[in-house]
Amino acid sequence: MKLAEDVGEHGLRRALGVWGATAFVVTNMVGTGIFTVPAFVISAVGNGLEALGVWLVGGGLALSGALCYAELATRMPAAGGEYFYLTRIYGRLVGFLSGWISFLVGFSAAIAAAALGAAAYASTFFPGWDRSQPLIEGLGVTQGGAVAAGLVALLAVFHSAGVRPSGRLQTVMAALVIGSILLFVAGGVGTGRGDWGRVTQEFSATGFWWVALIQVSFAYSGWNAATYLAGEVVDPRRTLPRALIGGTLAVVLLYLSLNLLFLYAIPVGEWAPTITVGTMAAERLFGPVGASIVSAMITVAILGSVSAMTAAGPRVYYAMAKDGLAPAVFGRLHGRSHVPVAAIIAQAVASMILAVTGAFESLLTYVGSALLLLAGVTVAAVYRLPRSEARDGARFFRTPGYPVTPAIFLVLMAVAWFQGVKERPVPTGAALLTIVAGVVIYYLGSARGWFTKAEGGSLE
Questions:
Q1: Does 459 map to a domain?
Q2: What spatial distance separates the first Cα and last Cα of the chain, rounded to whole Å?
Q3: Model pTM greater than 0.70?
């Protein structure tokens, strides 16, 4: 028999504790970005110390955002993340746009990019396999894209089984990822085969510093993961701040350690924009056998990220359907697993379509710039919250350093995004066009009656 406090809004079960929620944050963040973005960052800035500076600024940006989201999450502990907050604070249009961006960019495109990264690292186990080769001539479907799509499908099936097994999977993956990275860093330095002087050496660079920050922001994306499952978290006012802040701080330290290791391991002349920078570093430090082991570890880490996003995203569309801003079927829970299976499947299909294109770098900048915009609007919402406690005496988490903390986030976000438009106008501009398209769809859907609130039924 279920206790009343075990049931969240609309029948979602509160089954995630601090470790499970933190695991979603860590595994959502540690994945494709840190094992694919460093080479692009180095190519953009041209200096190891400057590259580390970009990662540090990106970490500060993520932590500032996590602090603000922690306050929003404890005041409104319901499923849906940004969508729920923005709808309640700004209204239905802004809420719909956040959900629209989440579906197309924040989750579907990000899952596709992560799955492509996993396929790239997995390909190192099969020397004769070229992931860039077309699978279907004339359609632009690569073999690597097809493998990535298959991984997305498998994880979607798993997360349809319920939030409790999802939480257990992410906890195990988080432990494996953190443990593996610490061993990788300690073992790599212990080999003595690198050179710390490379950290300060100059590289050839494109000069796109702000694009590098956008791409680093993609690597840090996921610091808000626990908020999407807030309706399934036990004691959210205590659990969510701990998960958001603790998970983000842990990842910042891991990222800086890994970037130092990459600079230590890889000679100046071998840095080039590549997805598999982790394998390059491992080959230099451990040789071919060690590189294979490290590649396996990285593949697991990236799959953990894909897994976390596969579970988190559908909670946004579930909340939207309950408000009448998404297809009603997304708001129905499966009769046995009590999760929004239809929303999980829809997201998986969109991710698979994007994955088969194999356009990794364009996805990287597109996702990073769109998520910066969404996070900026959400962080700004903190200024619209009343600073007094609730009437029932409940205490909320308060953003440390308010009002300076959200202001720092907003200034850095704005500068990075506008510089990104200047330096890489196509993928960054595509993020803006996505928002414009969302506005058109919202008003068209409202006029034609497309949006109706989901009833409380279930899918059998």
A1: no
A2: 21
A3: yes
